[in-house]
Write a structure and sequence with these properties.
A hairpin with a 2-residue loop joins β5 and β6. The chain is of the alpha/beta class. The chain has one domain: P-loop containing nucleotide triphosphate hydrolases (Rossmann fold). Helix content is 43%, strand content 24%. It contains seven helices and nine strands; from the N terminus they run βαβββαββαβαβααβα. The chain binds guanosine-5'-monophosphate. The site of guanosine-5'-monophosphate (5GP) has 12 residues, from β5 and β6. Guanosine-5'-monophosphate binds next to β5 and β6.
Amino acid sequence: MGRLFVISGSSGVGKGTVINEFLRRHSDFKLSISCTTRGKREGEEHGVNYFFLSQEEFKKCVENNEFLEWAEFSGNCYGTKKEFVENCLSKGENLILEIDTKGALNVKKIMPEATLIFIAPPSVEELEARLRGRHTETEEAIQKRLASIKSEIENSKQYDYVVVNDTVENAVKKIEEITG
Ligand code: 5GP
């Protein structure tokens, strides 16, 4: 059986970069592909980044109890298919779920053997400064994001590990220690 790891972190903490670097170094780990109702971003592909579903298709999967967990995030639905996770683990593949903290805590309830890792910013103040520094969002949008970052940090208190992303190298090393 493969092992299951769940990694979460607020947007803007560089979680994607850390996970990609870890995966580059560890070919025995695989990133799970979630389903989502959000629109495809440039460069994204169906079946690679996500399985892009319509609201109707997503609803059907919920009704048929096909999701291990699902959550609404920023007005869109995201879910992890049970079948996907079971297939990977039974093939002996180590799997990483990159999902939000609500979803992660639900996974832990169903699969207590899963290891939960939260990637935290060195400081919330610094993250706030970085978000403001981008000058791409309205004050309202920034406030909304900060509220969601704070609630995710609150949820992370129930995680097995918190990894501070001060540098990518340090964060990857810490994940290697946890998964090794
Ligand atoms: P994005 O739209 O930027 O790709 O992802 C937005 C958020 O949804 C991220 O926090 C990501 O971790 C989370 N997410 C992606 N897939 C899933 C999933 O299957 N379940 C849950 N609960 N969250 C997910």
